[in-house]
């Protein structure tokens, strides 16, 4: 499937600010699941753009605006082709939980086994994960059981959390949005030593087009496999992968600092158009 995506973020400041330093994760990855056909990043006021790959191989753009300004526009436009997803059979049992200790010795898994800025692992989370999984011996089956638990027990409720909400608060309140559900599922998986990472991206549906978040778990012999707790399913060709990390803090679309007033407004707009092949 082919998509055209526009992601526009506009900041408006009460009085002029200066010395703005920013980095953004707005260019999708090209991998076996998707191909980026074109990408343009627009910033106003216009700065000099630099780009690099961060620690998790996300393409990151960096720019600085030293002069005073009262607004900042960051707009990405790209076209991407998603490919047929090689789904793992939901009934498959590819890797036993008793061998999970092997993952701790893999560099690709090390950062995704413990707590992080927005993912809290405590005795309650660990006990809940054990209760949900029970005696299930397979990692893939256990991961799907934890995904189903989050989907069933947590209520999708906009505006009750923020981008700074930690998984422990969501676990207690049982409400949140896709980012929160991803953080809770990460906590449950990591509590059982299942390597799990955060994914930011987009989801195209008939009803809505928006930024989205889900997770991936690592299965030796199968690689990283995606799970979406918001919809209780494996992501398909309607998902566009943007960036990964330990949690939202590693994969957030825009991040920056500046000198000036704290009073500001932020408007975010995402438009996704399905293109005919």
Outline the structure in words.
The protein is an alpha+beta fold and 277 residues long. It has two domains: 2-83 and 252-275, Immunoglobulin-like (Sandwich), CATH 2.60.40.2250; 97-251, C8orf32 fold, CATH 3.10.620.30. Helix content is 20%, strand content 41%. The protein is built from six helices and 13 strands. The chain has helices at residues 107-110, 123-133, 139-153, 167-173, 178-191, 248-251; strands spanning 2-24, 34-44, 50-53, 59-65, 69-82, 155-156, 175-176, 196-204, 209-219, 223-227, 239-245, 254-259, 264-275. Strands 1, 2, 3, 4, 5, 12 and 13 form a seven-stranded antiparallel β-sheet that branches. Strands 10-9-8-11 form a four-stranded antiparallel β-sheet. Strands 6-7 form a two-stranded parallel sheet. β8 (196-204) and β9 form a beta hairpin. α2 (123-133) packs across α5 (178-191) and α3 (139-153) packs across α5 (178-191). The longest helix is centred in the middle third of the chain and has 15 residues, at 139-153. The N and C termini lie close together (7 Å).
């Amino acid at each position: 499937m082919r998509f055209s995506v526009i992601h526009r973020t506009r900041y408006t400041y009460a009085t002029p600010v200066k010395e703005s330093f920013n980095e953004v994760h707005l260019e999708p990855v090209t991998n076996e699941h998707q191909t980026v056909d074109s990408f343009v990043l627009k910033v106003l006021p216009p700065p000099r753009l630099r780009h690099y790959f961060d620690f998790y191989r996300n393409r990151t753009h960096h720019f600085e605006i030293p002069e005073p300004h009262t607004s900042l526009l960051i707009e990405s436009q790209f076209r991407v082709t998603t490919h047929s997803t090689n789904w793992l059979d939901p009934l498959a049992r590819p890797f036993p939980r008793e061998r999970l200790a092997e993952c701790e010795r893999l560099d690709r898994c090390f950062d995704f086994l413990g707590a992080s800025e927005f993912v809290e692992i405590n005795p309650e989370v660990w006990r809940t994960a054990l209760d949900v999984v029970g005696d299930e011996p397979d990692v893939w089956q256990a991961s799907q059981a934890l995904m189903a638990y989050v989907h069933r027990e947590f209520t999708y409720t906009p505006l009750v959390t923020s981008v700074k909400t930690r998984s422990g608060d969501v676990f207690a309140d049982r409400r949140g949005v896709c980012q929160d559900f991803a953080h809770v599922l990460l906590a449950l998986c990591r509590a059982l030593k299942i390597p799990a990472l955060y994914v930011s991206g987009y989801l195209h549906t008939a009803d809505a087009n928006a930024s989205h978040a889900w997770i991936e778990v690592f299965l030796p012999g199968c690689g990283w496999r995606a799970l979406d707790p918001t919809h209780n399913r494996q992501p398909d060709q309607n998902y566009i992968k943007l960036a990964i990390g330990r949690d939202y803090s590693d994969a957030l679309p825009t991040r920056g600092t500046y000198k000036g007033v704290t009073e500001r407004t932020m408007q975010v707009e995402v438009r996704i158009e399905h293109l005919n092949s």
